[in-house]
Specification:
About 80% of the residues lie in helices and about 0% in strands. By secondary structure, the chain is mainly α. It has a single domain (about 5-105), classed as Up-down Bundle (3 helical TM bundles of succinate and fumarate reductases). Helix 1 packs across helix 3 and helix 3 (about 50-75) packs antiparallel against helix 4. The radius of gyration is 17 Å and the shape is elongated. It starts with a helix and ends in a 7-residue tail after the last helix.
Length: about 110
């Protein structure tokens, strides 16, 4: 793996570890506090901190996952051509677009056009 991909993989792993821990702690706290899905969504609507946190979360996942998947595919299949890099770029783009769309949908319920 080239050094830039290695550093991106490790850096986003650290971000994701923190983001997953915060996300899980928040969900456990909300559910144990008796909040319903409707109440949780009413608290996230319009909350800029929520949106910023989940945008960072999504961006880290969109960088981290394709790098790891690329390494696994190269090892298991021997696929090493430029087309693998393009496939992983498409995968990263899909994660980014779908993840940001989900974060925006929770930030602005009903505000997204399908």
């Amino acid at each position: 793996m080239n050094p830039l991909l290695y550093m991106a993989q490790r850096g986003t792993a650290a971000l994701l570890a923190l983001a997953v821990a915060v996300h899980l702690a928040t969900m456990v706290h909300a559910v144990r506090g008796g909040l319903s899905a409707t109440e949780i969504l009413s608290r996230t609507a319009g909350n800029g901190w929520f949106l910023a946190f989940y945008c960072v979360f999504v961006c880290a996942a969109a960088i981290h996952a394709p790098i790891g998947l690329r390494s696994v595919i190269r090892e298991w299949t021997g696929w090493r051509s430029r087309s693998l890099d393009m496939a992983m770029l498409a995968f990263a783009t899909a994660i980014l677009v779908l993840g940001l769309r989900a974060a925006l949908a929770v930030y602005q319920p009903g505000g997204l056009v399908p």
